[in-house]
Amino acid sequence: MSDLSAVKALVFDVFGTVVDWRTSLVTDFMWWGKQRGIAADWTALVDGWRGMYMASMDDVRKHPERGYVMLDDLHRRSLEKLVDQFSIKGLTEADLDYLTKGWHRLNPWPDSVAGLRRLKTKFVIAPLSNGNVALLTNMAKFAGLPWDLIMSAELFEHYKPDPETYLGAARLLCLKPEQVMMVAAHNGDLAAAQKNGLRTAFVARPTEYGPLQKVDFEATGNWDIVAKDFGGIADKLGC
């Protein structure tokens, strides 16, 4: 492991790295659908929803003249398309709002909260997520995530992996990029962070996409830390 003595802050990818979005959403929507008497293939809807995630952000990048659009609004647009695609009938405005805000109610992986608490004893810890500020704040309250502050793509009006997100996080913390470590379960996120001078830590989440998982079963880059969970990162950083 390289010398990490200069690292002062850890920033975290959230969806898939800190929280189990897929299981959380499917379980939530199945329960909710039964209460509302609405039948749907909620697993397929959730997988389709996540499948539209990158393309929706790419569309924002391609059309800067339209201005930045936060993730809650992108999620809502994608959901409306999927509701039509899956022919889910009878949804009210309140129903669509409930489903969209399912992303605010995600459960952490079993090691996340305890690991974050350990890391917080030595480092500033914060999300660095494409989720908007309200989403990340509500999620932290729901899941008990002990962040020191909330950092979101919304603050920089750029989605990861744009350089403005990684460099913006360092700037807001009044740190040099090499004093900030990006923690993620996605090799691509870490590659972009490393390219912009941040240190990197990989933790595998091999069940993030359930049976649809195709990548990120293991570290594929030269990351500063590779660990099985957040507790392993804390061990390697002396927390």
Automatic annotation (TrEMBL):
This protein's source sits in the domain of life called: Bacteria
A molecular-function term among this protein's GO annotations: hydrolase activity, acting on acid halide bonds, in C-halide compounds
Q: SUPFAM superfamilies recorded for this chain?
A: HAD-like
InterPro entries named among the record's database cross-references: 2-HAD, HAD-like_sf, HAD-SF_hydro_IA, HAD_sf, S-2-haloacid_dehalogenase
Give the originating organism. Bradyrhizobium forestalis
Q: Name one Pfam family in it.
A: Hydrolase
What protein does this entry describe? Haloacid dehalogenase type II
Q: Which NCBIfam families match?
A: HAD-SF-IA-v2 (TIGR01493), HAD_type_II (TIGR01428)
Q: What UniProt keywords apply to this chain's record, in alphabetical order? A: Hydrolase
